[in-house]
Amino acid sequence: MPKVAVYDITGAKTGELELNDSVFGVEVNEAVLHQAVVMQLASQRLGTASTKTRGLVRGGGRKPWKQKGTGRARAGSTRSPIWVGGGTTFGPQPRSYAFRMPRKQRRLAIKSALTAKLQDGELVVVDSIAFDAPKTKNVINMLSGFDAANKKSLIITGEVVENVEKSARNIPGVKAIPASSSLNVYDLLYHDKVFVTKEAITRIEEVLA
C-alpha cells in the first residue's frame, strides 16, 4: 500500500497515512480517462443550436413562376434550400449531447485520475480543512503553506463544508468540492494540486475500494 505524508493546513507534516492500493495504486487507463472527460463535458453542452428547415422559414407559399414556358428551372417555393433566404438542409436542431458510461468504467476513471495525481506528486493529504468563517484569505494562506498560491488547486472535503467552499470560490483556479457527491475526473485532471482531507480519503475508499 502506498504511504503518503499527512499535513495540517499550515503545511507542517503531522504523520503518515496508508492508502488503499485498489484505489490509489491502479494502472492508469488513459482511454477511460478520456472517455470520462468527454462524457462530463458533453453533458454540460446546452444543445440549443437550431436552424430552420424550408417548412419553418417565413414566406414562399406562392409558386415563383409557372411550371412551363419560361425557360427557367421549375420552382415551387422561394424558400427551397437552394435559394438564398431558403431553409437549411440537415442543420442542427435542439438536442442533448449527454451519454452515459458503465459504472465500472466511471469508477475506474476516478481511480486512474487519483493514481495519476499521486504518482505525479500532486496529491496532498491534509488532516482536516475547516474555517471559523468564510474568508478568502484563509484559503490563500493554506495554499501559500504548500507553495500552491499561484496554482490551480482542488480542495476535496468529506462532506459539504460551507465555509471552505465560500472561501475558495472567489479565487480564480481554486475549487472546493465534497467527496460524498461531487468527486469527478475532470476536476481532478484540470487542477495542478489536489488537497484531500483524511475524511475524504476514507469516503473515497469506502465507495471505490
Automatic annotation (TrEMBL):
GO terms for cellular component: ribosome
InterPro entries on file: Ribosomal_uL4, Ribosomal_uL4-like, Ribosomal_uL4_dom_sf
Superkingdom of this protein's organism: Bacteria
Keywords: Ribonucleoprotein, Ribosomal protein, RNA-binding, rRNA-binding
Compositional bias segments (type: Basic residues): 60-71
SUPFAM superfamilies: Ribosomal protein L4
Region (Disordered): 52-78
Keyword Nuclease attached: no
Purpose of the protein: Forms part of the polypeptide exit tunnel. One of the primary rRNA binding proteins, this protein initially binds near the 5'-end of the 23S rRNA. It is important during the early stages of 50S assembly. It makes multiple contacts with different domains of the 23S rRNA in the assembled 50S subunit and ribosome.
Subunit relationships: Part of the 50S ribosomal subunit.
Family the entry assigns: Belongs to the universal ribosomal protein uL4 family.
NCBIfam families: rplD_bact
PANTHER family registered for this protein in UniProt: 50S RIBOSOMAL PROTEIN L4, LARGE RIBOSOMAL SUBUNIT PROTEIN UL4M
Identification of the protein by name: Large ribosomal subunit protein uL4
Organism in which the protein naturally occurs: Pelosinus baikalensis
Organism placement in taxonomy: Bacteria, Bacillati, Bacillota, Negativicutes, Selenomonadales
Underlying gene: rplD
